[in-house]
Write a structure and sequence with these properties.
alpha+beta, Ribosomal Protein L25, Chain P, 12 helices
């Protein structure tokens, strides 16, 4: 067992020196972590900033607006981000005050210095791996109407006003059952859009802007889900041979569905999950943390493992603008400010790419392996407090 531990460290963390007491220390660290935090399925490995990929050349300054908005929320109430332990909140409060003082900082070197003085980076890993899947999302803009018509015939629903024990309550119906209704009972409709495809992909993104015929806009955001498991239709299209792995993207799936209208319901119903929405009082993209999302600086995570408001250094690849078939290395500082029904696991993220067509093209082609480091406030009990949050 000890040999395996050392072999694992040498393979994955070559910068760590295996000294005289390596066997005893490694056994103690790994076994203690397994015993105390087995239920979390997450392990944090401390890193030095000098070993963070491209940290010294990063554009940390551009992430400061996202960091500051999250810090303001954290300072408003320590319950908001589920930093429930008083000790951990104390560390965050101190670090956030330093970050908020840096609002006039305009250089990357100064931003790096502030972060380095107040936070320690930890690689997020699980028992099996330290890399995971990273995808992208955006805010779609969809034409719609306040009223039903032959063209605008698909409703965008609020959460049904009924209890699950009531007969015919739609709250826990499958997608296949819901779409049979012209309009669900006991359920408010915010808008009507054209075609099931538009609604389906707006559900996948979790929010969207509806533009009415008079030019007025409303923002719909995720409010709930029917409790059914999420199934990616791309997996089914691959399985059936309708699209190849090289072809698969949001754009190619939309195009395939448009070319095969007779298969739309069959394909979409493979995903039993159905999303309900809420209307926001503005059209700013807003995540689950209640703060405005910033393009390529906000990340959707699984909050079971990553507390909202956390800073993360992401190492992955993203599609090139103008040539989405090609990818480029991408290492940047992001903030966990959103969640998603398909975002499950300790090392899993969804990058926010913005609003509109360019964002759609880049987000739709984003699918890459990656890893990230979480920044915890410096303090003797910070790491232990983090584990107790999970």
């Amino acid at each position: 067992m000890q040999t395996k531990i050392i072999s694992f460290i040498q393979k994955n963390f070559p910068f760590l020196k295996m000294g005289k007491y390596a066997v005893a220390v490694c056994s103690l660290v790994f076994l203690t972590s397994d015993i105390n935090y087995a239920s979390t399925h997450i392990h944090l490995v401390r890193y030095s900033y000098s070993h963070l990929p491209n940290w010294s050349k990063g554009s940390q300054h551009s992430a400061l607006p996202s960091i500051r908005t999250s810090c303001r929320k954290i300072l408003q109430t320590h319950y908001f981000f589920r930093y429930g332990k008083a000790q951990f909140y104390k560390h965050w409060k101190r670090s956030c005050k330093h970050l908020l003082k840096a609002k006039h900082t305009r250089s990357n070197s100064k931003a790096r210095k502030i972060i380095e003085n107040n936070f320690t980076p930890y690689l997020v890993t699980t028992r099996k791996q330290h890399t995971g899947l990273f995808t992208g999302y955006y805010i779609p803009i969809v034409k719609g109407s306040k009223y039903y018509s032959k063209y605008y015939n698909i409703p965008m629903y609020a959460v049904p006003k009924c209890h699950s024990y009531q007969r015919l309550c739609p709250r826990h119906m499958s997608r296949k059952t819901i779409v049979r209704y012209h309009k669900l009972p006991n359920t408010k409709v915010f808008a009507w859009v054209h075609g099931r495809i538009n609604r389906f992909f707006l559900e996948i993104q979790g929010s969207g802007i509806i533009v009415f015929e008079n030019g007025k806009k409303i923002m719909l955001a995720y409010a709930g889900q029917n409790g059914k498991p999420y199934y990616p239709i791309g997996r089914y299209l691959l399985k059936m041979g309708y699209l190849s792995r090289e072809q698969i993207s949001m754009q190619s799936m939309k195009l395939w569905l448009l070319k095969h209208p007779g298969s739309i319901d069959t394909i979409l119903n493979k995903n039993a999950s159905f999303v309900f929405f809420r209307k926001l009082h503005h059209t700013n993209p807003t995540g689950a943390a209640g703060v405005t999302l910033i393009r390529k600086r906000s990340l959707a995570v699984d909050r079971k493992f990553i507390p909202l408001g956390s800073m993360l250094w992401l190492d992955t690849e993203i599609p090139r603008v103008g040539n989405y078939a090609e990818s480029k290395k991408w290492q940047h500082l992001l903030v966990a400010q959103d969640t998603g029904g398909a975002i499950k696991g300790a090392v899993r993220g969804d990058i926010f790419f913005g609003v509109g067509k360019i964002a759609e093209s880049q987000a739709g082609n984003m699918r890459a392996s990656g890893r990230y480091w979480i920044f915890l406030p410096k303090g003797k009990s910070s790491l232990r407090s983090f584990y107790h949050l999970l």
